[in-house]
Write a structure and sequence with these properties.
With about 1100 residues, this protein is of the alpha+beta class. The strands form 6 sheets. Strands 1, 12, 13, 14, 15, 16, 17 and 18 form an 8-stranded mixed beta sheet that branches. A 6-stranded antiparallel beta sheet has the order 25-24-23-22-28-29. Helix 19 (about 570-585) packs antiparallel against helix 20 (about 590-610).
Length: about 1100
């Protein structure tokens, strides 16, 4: 059974903890709860300086980034030297930071007594950073304000700080920063001035062992900005041995590669030994099948080293930086070798991209026997004071040349801030040389800005590359200069120039690294790789700014209004941005075929416009919605992969290595927020909201209408055992994946209406709806554990609290069996309604030709196919079965029974008989046919397996009939084709029970896509039986089609191909869709007349021919 998200109403008033399901909640919902915020990603240099006067290490374990706001914060080269107060006359600029972390998916708001603080009524959101929650305010000077911080949980419930209201007396004017702590409402908060003049007055310099965290005024690089290790201090003698902190390791429960890494860390005090531990881990896992685990552990470990959370110390040895560079080159080669392998998974590519920025450079100047010698000359200059010379020598020079580590860049940047603080205090020649050394050291740590990184590869680019580089740098410079006044067109232009440059670099990296490649070539390849990753990071900034601009223009409502007035030109920019954004994922190696198909579709719909004969505006919106839903699935799969990769390993390694709990808890969240995938998700959500508004949709889709009441319970799957054992009475399930006592279901993903799951829901009269709107889902989840009423009709869907004593008479409770079906009385063989027929079990297997099949001997499916065959004689049409049934999730006992049955083989004469009926190398499909399925009162859709693409010489799939008390089982063997399209028809509209319409769902390739509940939507059309009117209800967006390769073996396997709907006639050609619908409608109507009741018809299209492969009574 497929993996779905569902909401259901259980038969109990007991609630289950949604927090306990946190790790199981789909990634889309996890993204939904992430506040809108720009994120600082330290992988490439987009500096924003720490506001002067703020000591990021004062009273905190982690750094606090005060420059983060809802506007983009990773712009490179942005006001490096100054922090401008934003407050006007009589106004106070206040930068507020709450040094506190919350659970994954929660966020923090502030409420207070002034309008700017929401007047105690409106929540004012704060922005997330790795160091805390921040916001900027402009308040009236001289006033008292009261406020409190509030945590907003995933279900939108709130948790207030304990204690009295916080009270703050504001100065008359100026700009200030303050740091607060959760539940410390009585703490004394110091307002720290942010203007340069006030900052200069606050800095004290005693010249000895000076704490430099207050001195980071100048050009704080991201590498240093993300630092969470020891505060740099200036020393005049070798005091490094006194700086080591006591570390503790806990290897309890560790095993395998994680244990190997932690044990290696224990004996690796300095940086180069830690790099060597990573190298050994990667090399040792290449042939062991543990490659992904080794990569994950290495990525986590290296990031914690680069942020200072795993400290590096001197160990008494002397290892110059060239040793680190050599190890880095070996690691890089291993990573490139893994990336070029054909069996490398998308998850491995994703993790490798996170390792690259953590490695030092191995350019020739750093692999030289004595690298980075400039600092030695600086430390012996005669134009600087003796004390300063000693501090440079002992703090930087000696440490760097004995045991280099990331902390050396932190110290160097702190020293640079100090010597440039007061212009003229030190000689210009000295300052200039120190700046050059700082640039060299940044280059060694690969910590340069994006512009610096790109300039470093200019000489290696061809003419096309140089042109692309020049265009991007020109656009970027113009954009950075314009800052917030930049237009959408400028942003789009810069994004396109970024894509063009990144394509050049990615193409240059496509060829594998030769074993005999010279060192210089490998070093330049590392620079190319970092530039490519840095460009992806910068696209995050551009998308963030574009989203903010669109929100300021009116967001989704503005787009919907423009579509309503048929002005779709306003959609060009956001669609163009989404195309470029998806292309970034493509260039990063994440499901490139899927990304390319989405890019093509979005481009086609952008160009196509509103030129449809059938309600062009609605058709354009439906077509676009299908692709946007597909795009959102792509982002969820990416985020889900991250959440599968990191949290467990982060928790395990964090505990073992003594990493602070906050860093462990926020690791995966930070990876999601800091990636371009986060902005793609936000942009996709904006456009989907606009499309739904224009279509009049609230994000609901109704499969089975009705009214039901019960207790709302969230579960991961609808399978036996998914409900709490205490559940009694009707329940409404909110399911994250698609029973017992289920009265209603809310599925949190799209689903084909005529899938097996939908058919069984109608059979059991279970009210069934799907919901894709984030706000609706959030509102529903607040009702978890409560008794509610679910109403689903053509007018909409409503879920509201209800009284247990007054629930509706029409709230029917179904006592479902463990396989999801209700008990059905088995009538006699003369039953005219065609329900289950008793038949004695026969141990004598035999072949029955289709024309001789009846319910008694062969089951309802084979009997129906026999009747279809007789109808085919009249209509002179051959009917071929192609649709497959879904695989259910079987419990352990069922699995054992399945293995037992699979071990049986039919007699040789049975196989010989089949080969007589189907001579040659024909491909077959083997299906169940029983007297307890495909009946008017019991469809049992999807409960039994079908095996496509088999050969008569594979006897294990032709198992004998199995007696299940009064049930008998036969198998139906038919020739198999590879259809162009598969379809399911319901001759009675399943949503409003209108007898005048046939509703069809159509998918590419085999019918398994439709039947099994694969995530996505099919083409859905409604056709009038009498007037021929065709109405398009939905466009297909399944990512893949299932086909059988004619050249491959008949081994029961199918091939999955990525679909580009911009090239499919059913999507782009309305005439083709109408003509096919008008051909399918008479087929369904004809079968309804012949079988005497509404029919559930399965079939396929091959060329110009339509094949009906199955029909059964439609569940009503």
């Amino acid at each position: 059974m497929g993996h779905w998200d569902v909401l259901s109403i259980p038969q109990t008033t007991d609630s289950i903890s949604l927090r306990s399901l946190q790790s199981q909640i789909p990634v889309r919902k996890q993204l939904r709860f992430l506040p809108n915020t720009a994120i600082f990603n330290p992988r490439i240099s987009f500096p924003f300086p720490l506001p002067p006067g703020i000591n990021r290490h004062c009273k905190h374990t982690h750094p606090l980034f005060f420059a983060v706001s809802s506007t983009p914060t990773r712009e490179e080269e942005k006001k490096k030297m100054k922090v401008k107060p934003k407050s006007g006359r009589g106004k106070v600029g206040l930068n507020v930071c709450l040094d506190h972390h919350v659970e994954f998916g929660e966020h923090v708001v502030i409420l207070g007594s002034t309008k700017e603080l929401g007047s105690w009524k409106k929540q004012v959101p704060m922005n997330w950073t790795e160091g805390g929650w921040v916001m900027d305010l402009e308040l009236k000077g001289g006033e008292f304000i009261e406020f409190k911080f509030v945590i907003v949980r995933k279900d939108k419930s709130v948790v207030w700080e304990g204690g009295d209201n916080r009270v703050l007396k504001l100065p008359q004017g100026g700009s200030f920063g303050m740091v607060c702590h959760w539940n410390s409402t009585g703490e004394t908060v110091e307002l720290l001035p942010l203007s340069l003049e006030e900052y200069g007055d606050r800095v004290e310099d005693d010249g000895h062992n000076e704490s430099t965290s207050d001195a980071l005024e100048v050009g704080t690089s991201p590498f240093v900005g993300q630092w969470q290790g020891r505060t740099a201090s200036f020393m005049r003698s070798n005091e490094h041995h006194n700086k080591e902190l006591e570390r503790k390791w806990d290897t309890t429960g560790l095993e395998g590669l994680a244990l190997k890494l932690v044990e290696g860390d224990k004996s690796a005090r300095n940086w180069w030994r830690k790099l060597e531990a990573v190298h050994e881990l990667l090399v040792g896992s290449l042939q062991s099948g543990e490659r992904l685990e080794a990569l994950i552990c290495s990525a986590i470990y290296l990031k914690w080293i680069n942020t200072g959370q795993i400290p590096c110390f001197e160990d008494g040895g002397h290892h110059r930086p060239n040793r680190h560079a050599e190890i880095s080159r070996h690691i890089f080669r291993e990573l490139e070798r893994i990336s070029s392998r054909k069996d490398t998974s998308p998850q491995e590519v994703l993790v490798i991209r996170k390792i690259h920025p953590c490695l030092p450079s191995f350019k020739a100047e750093f692999t030289a026997s004595v690298p980075l010698t400039r600092i030695r000359d600086i430390a012996h200059r005669n134009d600087i004071p003796h004390d300063l010379k000693q501090e440079i020598k002992h703090t930087i020079q000696n440490k760097l040349h004995r045991n280099a580590g990331p902390e050396d860049l932190v110290s160097t940047e702190a020293m640079l801030a100090r010597v440039t603080r007061n212009p003229g205090e030190y000689s210009e020649a000295f300052v200039e040389q120190f700046k050059i050394f700082h640039q060299e050291l940044k280059d060694f740590f690969n910590a340069g800005s994006l512009t610096e990184q790109l300039e470093s590869i200019r000489e290696s680019l061809d003419e096309q590359g140089v042109s692309a580089l020049a265009m991007f740098l020109e656009c970027k410079k113009s954009l950075d200069t314009a800052e917030e006044s930049s237009s959408i067109l400028d942003l789009i232009k810069t994004m396109r120039s970024l894509s063009a440059l990144r394509e050049v670099i990615v193409k240059g990296l496509e060829s594998s690294l030769r074993n005999d490649a010279p060192d210089a070539t490998i070093a330049m390849r590392q620079k190319w790789r970092l530039c490519e990753i840095g460009l992806e990071d910068y696209s995050f900034v551009l998308l963030s700014r574009l989203l903010n601009t669109h929100e300021a223009m009116g967001g989704a409502n503005w787009l919907a209004d423009n579509l309503e007035s048929r002005n779709i030109g306003s959609w060009n920019n956001p669609l163009g941005a989404l195309i470029v954004a998806v292309h970034q994922l493509n260039l990063s190696g994440w499901k490139p075929e899927e990304c390319a198909a989405i890019e093509n579709e979005l481009t086609a719909w952008q160009e196509k416009g509103l030129f449809e004969k059938e309600d062009g505006k609605r058709i354009w919106a439906l077509r676009l919605k299908a692709t946007l839903d597909r795009t959102r699935r792509l982002t969820e799969e990416y985020s889900e992969a991250l959440l599968q990769i990191f949290p467990q390993k982060v928790q395990m390694l964090g505990k073992a290595l003594g990493i602070p709990e906050n860093s462990v808890r926020t690791y995966a969240e930070a990876e999601i927020r800091a990636g371009v995938i986060f902005q793609v998700s936000k942009l996709c959500t904006l456009l989907l909201k606009a499309v739904r508004t224009s279509l009049g949709s609230q994000g609901w889709d109704i499969l089975v209408p009705g009214v039901v009441s019960g207790t709302l319970v969230q579960v991961e799957n609808i399978v036996p055992g998914s409900l709490p054992s205490s559940s009694e009475g009707p329940v409404i399930l909110v399911v994250t994946a698609a029973g017992s006592n289920i009265a209603g279901v809310v599925l949190l993903q799209e689903l084909a209406h005529l899938s097996h799951l939908g058919v069984r829901a109608r059979q059991e009269k279970v009210v069934f709806v799907t919901c894709e709107d984030e706000e609706n889902v959030s509102d529903i989840q607040k009702l978890a554990g409560k008794y509610v009423r679910l109403e689903a009709s053509s007018s909409g869907v409503n879920i509201s609290p209800s009284s247990l004593d007054n629930h509706d008479a029409d709230s029917v409770v179904k006592n479902l069996s463990t396989n999801g079906s209700s008990a059905v009385e088995v009538p006699g063989p003369d039953d005219s309604a065609g329900l289950a027929v008793k038949a004695p079990y026969s141990s004598q297997a035999r072949i029955i030709l289709l024309a001789d099949a009846d319910v008694l001997t062969s089951g309802a499916k084979a009997a129906a196919c026999g009747r279809l065959a007789s109808l085919a004689v009249v209509s002179d049409k051959e009917k071929i079965e192609t649709a497959g049934l879904e695989d259910g999730e079987l419990d352990k006992l069922c699995h054992q029974l399945q293995q037992l049955i699979s071990s049986l083989q039919p007699p040789k004469d049975i196989i010989d008989g089949i080969m007589i009926v189907f001579p040659g190398n024909v491909r077959l499909i083997v299906r169940s046919s029983a007297n307890v399925e495909d009946l008017a009162g019991m469809s049992a859709a999807g409960l039994y397996e079908s095996i496509p693409n088999v050969s008569p010489s594979s006897p294990t799939v032709f198992t004998s009939a199995v007696s299940q008390k009064d049930a008998t089982m036969a198998i139906l063997v038919q020739e198999m084709l590879s259809p162009d399209l598969s379809f399911v028809l319901h001759t009675l509209s399943p949503t409003d029970h209108d007898h005048n319409y046939v509703e069809a769902e159509i998918a590419l390739g085999l019918g398994e896509t439709l039947a099994s509940g694969t995530r996505g939507t099919p083409w859905r059309v409604s056709s009038g039986k009498f007037d021929g009117l065709v109405r398009t209800l939905a466009f297909a967006n399944f990512s893949e089609e299932m086909v059988v390769s004619g050249a491959g073996p008949a081994d029961g396997e199918v091939i999955r191909l990525t679909v580009d709907y911009s090239k499919k006639p059913l999507t782009v050609d309305p005439i083709f869709l109408h003509q096919l619908s008008q051909r399918l409608c008479p087929v369904g109507f004809f079968l309804e007349q012949k079988f005497g009741c509404p029919q559930d018809v399965e079939g396929c299209v091959l060329g110009k021919d339509i094949y009906v492969v199955q029909t059964r009574p439609q569940p009503l």
